[in-house]
Amino acid sequence: MKRHAVTLLLLLAVLASGTAPAFAQDAVGSWSKAGPVEARLVSAVRGTGDLTALPLGLELRLEPGWKTYWRSPGDAGFAPRLDWSRSVNLGEAKLFYPAPHRFSVLGFETAGYDTAVLFPIQGMPATPGKPVDLALTAELLVCSEICVPQTLELALALPAGPAEPSEVANDVARAQALVPKGPNGLLRIDSVQGNGTALEVEATAADGFVSPDLFVETDPPLTFSAPKTVFSDNDRHVRLTLTVTDPQPGLDLTGRALTLTLVDGDKAVEAPAMAVAGGAASVPGGAGLVAMLGVALLGGLILNLMPCVLPVLSLKLMSVVKHGGRAPAAVRAGFLASAAGILTSFLLMASVLVGIKAAGGAVGWGIQFQQPLFLVFMVVLVTLFSANLWGLFEVPLPRVLADRLGGDGLAGPFATGMFATLLATPCSAPFLGTAVGFALSEGPVEIYAIFATLGVGLALPYLAVAAWPRVAGWLPRPGRWMATLKTVLGFALMLTAVWLLSVLTAQIGEVAAATVGLLMAALVLALWVGRSARGAARIAGPALAGVLAVAAFAMPAAVGPSAGAAPVVSDSKARWVPFAEATIREHVAAGRTVFVDVTADWCITCQANKKLVLNRGEVAQRMDDATVVAMRADWTRPDATIAKFLSDHGRYGIPFNIVYGPGAPDGITLPELLSEGAVLEALSKAAGKAS
């Protein structure tokens, strides 16, 4: 018996001292050292759960003075070579590379890492829900004054338990964040120009460059010199010039497909591009101005169909009805005046945004609805339009003002066009978000060009009638029936005022917003009394209405911009959690799917998305699932964190919905108008499941 015990102890000692590492517990493998480098496998989750994509990592530590290499090493070296063939229940493992550093030694340019690096890995179990035993043979080239290839044997066992976050979940999430991705709002590659063996790249940084570097990959591979940099626009713009080292005779980079990785400190962006001769290259995600003008035209046209513009339907309808039976010249003039009002509003909006951007403020589509004074202005304006439709302005007001509020002159159609634009801004129609995002990330010229084109798109129906004015002749001639129609449409406009007051409630509180509503009711009453009175009393009514309007504007200043603001009411007791961007990576590392909904009370499209898609049917059931984190970013009031999140994704308007998960760590962006199929498909893809 003793002899068997001794034999067993000797066997255990041999196994413990063998070259094959033992499988580690708690999702962290044992360190394995080879020369100046040591490595281990780690996992962001303790168990496989039902994940179809496991967030893993290969962690390296190097002795001082030593380095290893990126996927494109440069003039020398080779990238890590990984063999997973001895693993159990592992279908595929994809290695991702954090942004590299440049090493320049004796004219040789290489790219890689020193001190330490954690490579994120996406592991795909062959059979989800079963244990996964990872066994990796990693071949690395490490260099100092000399280069030495090293081979390490690594292992890690993941049980079939719950996919809870491990102690290294945050480390894996940080490593994933350091992997260069597409456009992020911080860095942007504007153009790529090839001239023989030289490459010239123009780039922009939202916050200014510090020490930019550029890595170029081609097929077949070419090696490039370190870039020469020329800065402009307070270091927000840089021109990087690189040349091919040891080129083949007759080499010309023009027309060659490239992958560019632009790095500046902890910020990095990766983009495919094609070098062109004598002009800017088209970089996917950064379309040229001409293409964006087409997108803006289509977005402005579609905006006519959005729910934000529907409240002004009453004014549009009255404008059309008034032209029934009129001469073609008069019809053309009226509709051109409405188009001019729309275009003027867009140009004024562009001017304001250019000024705010130049002053360093946050810019965005519809952000004026975050300002209480603007909301009060809109409430007063809608109330006055309603009162005009009810005939309360016809006698006591001067002719000029009567024309402005819907009279027979051109000022009425012009004001209608401006009003339609103001009410359109809470919506982000298809294509509109892309065009506005492009404009606001560029300079004043692009902003004015895009916003003018958006105005033309919104005004296209008016321009069409102006081009064919005989269309208005098909309408019935004005008559007594218009009085009833005016009354009905006036009440329809008052519903818009009620909606605006509900948005104002979130800004200044229920009592203050209700006070503004009562002041508007008193304003209409004063106009009605003045309309019915005689003599001096006819003037007193409009004068009192003016005082009440001024009192409404004073209300936000009296209570403060957010004092007593109503809290955001969730659609479900436990479904939605507050937006916290820092936790998204942690949730994804733990195998959860994160649905981010950037919304606001003043965004009618957002409310339509909630009512028609997010809060009903199978989508609502999926949101209540324990593996889905429904995260809501409420932008009703100004919020710098949400504004930055939108900017980082190239967006400056809402609604904006994006889904993250193990199958989509970089996120899947959804269209402005949601559909049940699109949301369910994105949730499935993000979770790593087949749709």
From TrEMBL:
Membrane topology: Multi-pass membrane protein
Matches recorded under CDD domains: DsbDgamma
Signal peptide extent: 1-24
Protein localization: Cell membrane
PROSITE patterns (alphabetical): THIOREDOXIN_2 (PS51352)
Domain of life: Bacteria
GO CC, any one term: plasma membrane
Keywords, sorted A to Z: Cell membrane, Cytochrome c-type biogenesis, Membrane, Signal, Transmembrane, Transmembrane helix
A matching Pfam family: Thioredoxin_7
SUPFAM superfamilies (UniProt xref): Thioredoxin-like (SSF52833)
Domain Thioredoxin as annotated: residue spans: 544-685
GO MF terms, alphabetically ordered: protein-disulfide reductase activity
GO biological process, one term: cytochrome complex assembly
Protein known as: Copper resistance protein
Organism annotation: Azospirillum lipoferum
